[in-house]
Amino acid sequence: MGLFSRAPKGDLNLNYDAIAGYAVGWLPYSEKAIQLAFPHLKVRPATIPDYNRGTIDGFALFDADPTDPVLCIAKDGDSGYAFSVSAHNRQALALGKYRVDETVLGDFRDDHMDSADFWVDGSKIVVMGGLREHGAAYTARHMFLPPADWTGDLRKAGADVWRTCVLSETRFFVSGQRIRPTDDIDTAGGVKLVKKHRGQARQPLQPGPNRGGGDPIKLLLQGLYSPKEAQKAYLKLADIIVHNADIVATKARIKTVFENHEAPDDVALCLSEMYNEERETVFMIPLDWKAEPSDLANRITRALGDEAVPLPDVENRSVAEDGVLAVYAKSLQDAGFDLWSLDTQSDMHCLFVARKKDRNRIAKLLIPTQAGACVFA
Prior knowledge:
Elements: E1 13-14, H1 31-37, E2 42-49, E3 55-62, E4 71-75, E5 82-87, E6 93-94, E7 113-118, E8 125-129, E9 139-145, H2 159-162, E10 166-173, H3 187-196, H4 216-224, H5 227-240, H6 247-260, H7 264-272, E11 285-288, H8 293-304, H9 324-334, E12 337-342, E13 348-355, H10 359-366, E14 373-375
Parallel strand pairs: 1-6
Antiparallel strand pairs: 2-3, 3-4, 4-5, 5-10, 7-8, 8-9, 9-10, 11-13, 12-13, 12-14
């Protein structure tokens, strides 16, 4: 696509290789230069949202809505260059698919994501993207605000709340000092440069860093992970879940695991196997993915101890077959218990039993462990 494409969505699409069709890494800051760069939009001086908070003087670019700008352009001091191009409503399309006031963080994916973090006071989430070594002409910041009914520090909220945060601003940074043709530029020089580069086509983007698989939730979790807090959570969990292991010995073993492992997946796998060699002792229940149902039934019975629960006689050959685990979960729930699954990123099932009344408490405890867990419902 050329510099000033009129292709559908192209004119209002903001990406790392072109912003609304403009494919040059720098942008002079003057009304005439900006009009040349975005000939399909109407340019007017206006008060626009600032980078951090409040408002500043800048340029507003209008498309179909004459009262609400589709883009806002801020200046970089007295350099004569623009600092950023930002979108604050759903008219523009970010990364080819996302819209302000519409896209939630749970649906947001960015293969060129550099980082995902919380605002300094935890009031919003910031996703950054566009590494230069991957061919990006621009870097970007995508801001996500919590739902209206949420108050407090998002760092304490957990992934379920993060996923509902809504895109509130997409801002692309232009005219980085290392890529400007000159250190500063006047109005006439800026117009001349835009005209000179009128036919420049966008450069192809290289595969991005794909951090966290492009999923900001994963990066947020990684950033908050604390082995110390995870250990505290597992020690509390030992008091809550249903098992027949000695509680003092179990807590000592949990501490030993954390002395040798820190990564969430490694810790979860080691904890699930703590009593694997002691056939009569159950804390968590590690099972080969194709273990026989009778093996699961026997371990559940040992974990429950004196709290007998009638379990079904399942004729399937493996717990991996559809519906087998759900059958046991149903019997347990009828008796007031939950069957939980812990994700150890291995080919083993890691299960544990807990009382239904403790479901919310356990879910909160598992957040700092970063071991993905769910209840078989």
